[in-house]
Amino acid sequence: MERLRKLQECNKRNMTLKQAFCQFGITKENQAIKRLNEDEEFSAVINWALNKLPPFHRMNLRYTVNGELYQTTITKSTREIRVGKPMLQTKFEGAIRYDWPEETTYETLDVGIIATSASRADIINDAKINGRLLSTQEVAEQESSHTNQDGKNPILTEEERHVVSEFLNV
Fold first, then answer.
1. pLDDT value of position 149
2. Given CB 3.0 to 4.6 Å as the disulfide criterion, which of 25, 31, 134, 148 pairs with 138?
3. Does residue 161 fall inside a structural domain?
4. Cβ pair 104, 33 in contact under 8 A
5. Distance between CA 21 and CA 45 in Å, rounded?
6. What is the Cα–Cα distance from 128 to 169, expressed in whole angstroms?
7. Domain range spanning residue 67?
8. 74 in helix, strand or coil?
9. Domains in the chain: how many in total?
10. pLDDT, tens only, 74-132
11. What's the predicted TM-score (pTM) here?
């Protein structure tokens, strides 16, 4: 519940993401994120967003509060990180936040892996809600039908970056 409150404060601009989560450190940089518990995973993703999220990119941050899955968007401009409004993603008990690839660690994490992991988790959660368990192959097949051609964020030109930066700083 504390995480949700802090993210809501960030969204309302009462504090920055760095101020809200300065005590969240990463202690297991070389361990696979899939092997971390929920608190360690959250700390790793928050820490990555604060320190490694590239400018002009955004990512979805997911977390559970009392069995409910919430999601917010973190966007980085040239000088600041903005947090979107936390939204209830699902009330499904046992919903997963991300479906990380086995080899993903804090050091190898990137925006594409986060987006793909969240998308795969949505597919798995939807299947669980409908009473089905999907194999890894079935998840991959459904994922390929939902993603765009390369599954990556679009590349912005310098002019587009400037326009986005001005818009975010207004």
1. 42
2. 134
3. no
4. yes
5. 11
6. 41
7. 2-149
8. strand
9. 1
10. 999 888 899 999 999 888 888 899 999 999 999 899 999 999 999 989 988 888 888 88
11. 0.75
